[in-house]
Automatic annotation (TrEMBL), chain A:
Entry-linked Gene3D superfamilies: 1.20.1050.10, Glutaredoxin
Protein name as catalogued: Glutathione S-transferase
GO CC term, one of those recorded: cytosol
Catalytic activity: RX + glutathione = an S-substituted glutathione + a halide anion + H(+)
MF terms in GO: glutathione transferase activity
GST C-terminal domain segment(s): 80-201
Annotated keywords: Transferase
Protein family membership: Belongs to the GST superfamily. Pi family.
CDD domains recorded: GST_N_Pi
From TrEMBL, chain B:
Any one GO cellular component localisation term in the record: cytosol
Domain GST N-terminal: start-end pairs: 2-81
Oligomer and partners: Homodimer.
Name of the protein described by the UniProt record: glutathione transferase
GO molecular function: glutathione transferase activity
Presence of keyword Plastid: no
PROSITE patterns on file: GST_CTER, GST_NTER
Sequence ranges assigned to domain GST C-terminal in this UniProt record: 83-200
InterPro entries: Glutathione-S-Trfase_C-like, Glutathione-S-Trfase_C_sf, Glutathione_S-Trfase, Glutathione_S-Trfase_N, GST_C, GST_superfamily, Thioredoxin-like_sf
Assigned EC number: 2.5.1.18
Family to which this protein belongs: Belongs to the GST superfamily. Pi family.
Length: 208, 210
């Protein structure tokens, strides 16, 4: 079934979905809305927001709902309930970090960046590092030997934080190695190479 | 089977969705409720996976993150729709409700809009979208004729906004009827009446109670 992902030209909340689809080699139309087009699209969206994934006659919005749906569809949701709920919990933890990141980026970049890098980020990363050790001693993926939707979200989250602060993963070696490993996955690597040529902004306000 | 134990605060907050799910489905559970900002909570905060509650101790494991707990209970107790399309729809509905709650939460914590903006503009605009989405599926609940996990979340949200402004649901007949229907469910009614009579705080501060 033809898939169409509508999102902004930035990475934002659409990027983990793009990474998942690229890695799983699921063909999709990568529809990127310009600023000028958005006012026309906004009222048509279920909650006035993107990302929006159109799959046949089904219209899905809310990045988390889209990711969990794709997770179930493409074998990226764990192999039993224990793994499924762990993946869900891990994802929600990353999401809390992302909300703090977004608040700093959009509301308090100039004054908030330094304290965020110095205090908030290390504390949050330390919790994720600890949780990442739950399966396979933190040497593989979020839930062990198989990747899940949370791995794409984790990779993107670490990647944008490395843009913010290139040394931010020095205190969390398992996450750092995960980021390096994940970037080397052949389909991810090829996607990242293509992305580098376009070099899209991480956030809508150009701050990163 | 061991009885699940919910660790949360002595307020409605995010833990209330979980309580409502348990109570309506007559699932036995225990509670350990901490007073917000108390020393007792301060002592255990760091032992929580993300330093937060709710935390559900279940099947020998600790589960945190409200959405995660609700979805886990939904899968376990057949409250997640009957196919992938329904599960995704419930998830999307929940996430939409959650966005409104975040704006409410910002207001409560003096970080967002004024009461006037929230009550007269933001919440009605969001309820209009939720009303339209609610009407895309037939039946008395979000999908069909029985509540699923997202119905408890929607109900609690509508109730929270209704506490803020008694007339806020009037313009949204489907949501208003749903709110009344949930309120009158046999397993919930007594609990909800007591909760209202006891004036249990919605938030960690009194703001939001009128």
């Amino acid at each position: 079934m033809a898939l169409k992902l509508s999102y902004f030209q930035t990475r934002g909340l659409g990027e983990p979905i793009r990474l998942l689809l690229a890695d799983k080699q699921v063909p999709f139309e990568d529809h990127r809305l310009s600023r000028d087009e958005w006012p026309e699209y906004k009222p048509k969206m279920i909650f006035g927001q993107v990302p929006c994934l159109i799959s046949g006659d089904e219209e899905l919005v809310q990045s988390a709902a889209i990711l969990r749906h794709l997770g179930r569809l493409h074998g990226l949701n764990g192999s039993n309930e224990t793994e499924t709920k762990f993946i869900d919990m891990f994802y929600e933890g990353i999401r809390d970090l992302h909300n703090k990141y977004v608040a700093m980026i959009y509301q308090n970049y100039e004054n908030g960046k330094e304290p965020y890098i110095k205090n908030t980020l290390p504390e949050e990363l330390a919790r994720l590092e600890k949780l990442f050790h739950t399966y396979k001693n933190g040497e593989q993926y979020v839930a062990g030997s198989a990747e899940s939707y949370a791995d794409y979200v984790l990779f993107e989250e670490l990647d944008i934080h490395l843009i913010l602060s290139p040394t931010c993963l020095d205190g969390t070696p398992a996450l750092k190695k995960f980021h390096e490993r994940f970037a080397e996955r052949p389909n991810i690597k090829s996607y990242l190479n293509k992305r580098a040529a376009i070099n899209p902004a991480v956030n809508g306000n150009g701050k990163q | 089977m061991t009885i699940p134990q919910l660790h949360y605060f002595s307020i409605r907050g995010y833990g209330e969705y979980i309580r409502l799910l348990f109570i309506d489905n007559a699932i036995e559970f225990k509670e350990k409720n901490f007073v917000p900002f108390s020393a007792e909570w301060g002592q255990i905060k760091d032992s929580m996976i993300f330093g937060q509650m709710p935390c559900l101790k279940i099947d020998g494991q600790e589960l945190v993150q409200t959405g995660t707990i609700m979805r886990h209970l939904a899968r376990k107790h057949n409250l997640n729709g009957s196919n992938e399309q329904e599960a995704t729809f419930l998830d999307m509905f929940f996430e939409g409700v959650r966005d409104v709650r975040q704006k409410y939460f910002s207001y409560i914590n003096d970080l967002g809009e004024t009461r006037d903006e929230l009550v007269n503009s933001t919440i009605p605009a969001s309820l209009e979208k939720l009303e339209a989405l609610f009407n895309t599926h037939p039946g008395d609940y979000i999908i069909g004729d029985k509540p699923n996990y997202a119905d408890y979340i929607l109900f609690e949200e509508l109730d929270v906004y209704n506490v803020l402004d008694k007339g806020i649901l009037v313009k949204f007949p489907a949501l208003k009827a749903f709110h009344e229907r949930m309120w009158n469910r046999p397993n919930l009614k007594g609990y909800l009446e007591k909760r209202a009579a006891d004036k249990i705080w919605i938030n960690a501060v009194e703001k939001g109670m009128n």
